[in-house]
Design brief:
By secondary structure, the chain is an alpha/beta fold. 51% of the residues lie in helices and 12% in strands. It is built from 14 helices and seven strands. The protein has a seven-stranded parallel beta sheet, with helices on both faces. Helix 4 crosses helix 10 and helix 11 packs antiparallel against helix 14. The two termini are 34 Å apart. The relative contact order is 0.11. Bound molecules: guanosine-5'-triphosphate and magnesium ion.
Length: 334
Amino acid sequence: VPDVKEILQGSQIAGARAIRLIDDNDPKAFSLLKQLYPHSGNAFIIGITGSPGVGKSTLIDALIFEFRKRDFKIAVIAVDPTSPFSGGAILGDRLRMQRHGADEKVFIRSMASRGQKGGLSRATKDAAIVLSAMGYEIIIIETVGAGQAEFDIAAVAHSIGIVTIPGTGDGIQAVKAGILEIGDIFIVNKSDRTDAEAAVHELKMMLSMRNSKGQESHLSRPWTARVLKTIAQNGTGVKELFDTFLAHFDFMKQNGRLELKKKHLERLYFKSLLKDLALEKIELFVQESMAFKETLDQIESGTIDPITAAENVTNDLKITCNLKAIRNLKVRDN
Ligand SMILES: Nc1nc2c(ncn2[C@@H]2O[C@H](COP(=O)(O)OP(=O)(O)OP(=O)(O)O)[C@@H](O)[C@H]2O)c(=O)[nH]1
Ligand SMILES: [Mg+2]
């Protein structure tokens, strides 16, 4: 287990070990996180998501340069729950950002996080606590927009960039329902291709409908989502992207929104921890209880039906919350 003091001093070796424990869903990470938590919370967390291959890693690599020019300490976690541990995408992410490897104020890790019970958001949140405690001011989380992943990132990041590319195949039409709601900055990358302008236009149209819905009206001036064009490969538009992320950060800081968001994310984190811990307790109960084994026999012999049996077993649980409460948590989280 890595040393807490070393992590707090920013040791990349200790930090890497801590993140490995988290990625492996090792119970030893838990006490570590408890000790690190009070030292976390100062980082600005950026989520970058989008379909496979749209250029997220290349873009982040270029963004790292902009952040380093202003001497920000920056960490990146690339998460790909769909790829095998030794597989291509994660290695590709690391390779694409490798040239920063010699810079001690840049820290890049990848996670698979398939073992995580609480899913992507729990794992990345845990990792962000480590990185923040290490003293990184900017944390970028790259997630592949597959399944739930891009929605999970909304439970962790303070600012979300959605990357798309021109063309209908993998472009705006493919942007999933709901994704427009979570993005703060929309990036049309690979704008060296034809139809980049059309993609920008289409996104702006869709966003104008979102913006006119009058959401967040309880706060005086809502952030208007931006649409930017980039060519990540040669850095075109990346300075503007960097400026826009900082503008969003300043905007959130100025009107107290960042503090509100942090409180909100803290509640979400608490809830996902609660679910994980409650389920662990239930599993333990199920494994060790004699009554449970007897019940299985009864089901097999037909003396009790599975519905009544499940009810009986859960009624026996020696935890203070009941299953209804857990189910409610799940529903509200979705
Ligand atoms: N033409 C063009 N190609 C680009 C641009 N940005 C990235 N690419 C290329 O697109 C490919 C995918 O880039 P990545 O940065 O790995 O994309 P990604 O979104 O991180 O991919 P995954 O992590 O696998 O989802 C690479 O071959 C890049 O060189 C761009 O602006 N224009
Ligand atoms: Mg990538």
